[in-house]
Specification:
With 291 residues, the protein is α/β, with parallel strands linked by helices. The protein folds into two domains: 9-174, 3-Layer(aba) Sandwich (Rossmann fold); 178-263, Conserved Hypothetical Protein Ylqf, Chain: A, domain 2. The protein is 36% helix and 12% strand. It is built from eleven helices and six strands. It has helices at 9-22, 43-49, 66-76, 92-96, 98-104, 128-136, 178-187, 197-211, 213-219, 229-236, 251-263, and strands at residues 27-33, 54-59, 82-87, 116-122, 154-158, 162-166. Strands 3-2-1-4-6-5 form a six-stranded mixed sheet, with helices on both faces. The chain is elongated, with a radius of gyration of 20 Å. The two termini are 25 Å apart.
Amino acid sequence: MKPLNWYPGHMAKARRDIGKAMGKTEVIFEILDARLPFSSENPLVNSLRRDTPCIKVLNKKDLADPRVTQLWLTQLNRIPGVHAVALDSRDKRKARELLPMARTLLRTDRNKDKPIQTMILGVPNVGKSTLINTLAGRAIAKASNKPAVTKRQQIVRCPGNIHLIDTPGFLWPKLDPPECGYRLAISGAIADNVLEYEHLGEFAARYFLERYPDRLRERFKLETLPEGAIALLEAIAPKRGCLRKGGVIDLQKVSEVLVREFRNASMGPMSLEEPKDMPTSWSNDDGVESA
């Protein structure tokens, strides 16, 4: 499997700036994609945050498989210092509950009149800007369905005397294991202009055949499911007009169709990974992340 790497220069700067600001941060909001919590969890964050309390927000839960999301919440809430919640980014009332939640995690001996210093982190296109605007109660961060829109830090003043450091969405130099890069790309966290959609389509087709065969059968009106990812793409192609002259399958186009239908949940809420899929080194028997 060919690794996918996308690390623009501003992301390297973002990592350095986050490291500098972390020392003054009292609570971290790490925004994860509920469809791929492991792959969208930046491994640099844990090394940077040390013992700072962290609220891991599984955003876009309305797009994710509810059963799988609950498995992830159970797993993440076992980690010391971590409080995991799932959020539909359209539910503004639920989103605003994150601010009082942060207050409960503060040290009891802190100056109560001092503004609470928090930071929000997340990979590109995870819904961070939309959430910031909800927390602030006004449009501050530019929201977009394209990755890497936010380029620099800014301090957002939120209700309850809470200061929120907004950081650019950043990835890490080596997306490892390679499956992480593919899941991120399928979710939209990596710019489309650096992707080879045929590879993404094959990866997605293989996973959906294993985990969501009934969804594929229903969505694409398939009486029987083909064996193998390429065979599935070839079966979908004529149903979506993805044919070249002479009836030749356009793998690029049909792969784009499959990825797009996952992103907009046309096949229903689906997840790209489960806790059982993760490397054994990721957690020990207590659910605590290993070094």
